[in-house]
Amino acid sequence: MSFDQEWAELKKNAAARTRLNSAPMLETNPTQTLNEDLIVNDEELGKIGHAAYVLHGKLMADGKHAQQQSETASDSLQSDGFATGVALNKFSKAWKTQVKTLLDGCAHISNHLDYSIKSKRKEDEQIETTIRASKIADYFDVQSKENATRTRSDGPIM
Description:
Elements: H1 3-12, H2 14-21, H3 42-62, H4 67-79, H5 83-139, E1 141-143, E2 150-152
Antiparallel strand pairs: 1-2
């Protein structure tokens, strides 16, 4: 029986569906409901961003500490005719590429989380200001210039 045939048969089989639906979920939290939104606060994002920043700094220094020695050894071995020198040179270049990739990843994470926090904070402030302005407009009376009667404002006064 092919996989497709077996899979079609299992999908039709009610007992198999029951077993799949009742299978325990990995790392479940009994206090968490399934329809809950993902909630992350600025402090958690800040910690992750800071860890990425610290890792970037350490990797910048420690990721290159053997680069000069490796290149020197590679050149020396190659000049003596050893194939190991060529292999060491390839390894050194691959290492350099991998360190750069990790540095870029750490910088991207740190910068993105910093941007996300600032962007979210700015958006929250803008929403808060809009709500406050709409509440003020509901309760603030403005005197019309044409007549001295008090009229209700149509919006914020600039």
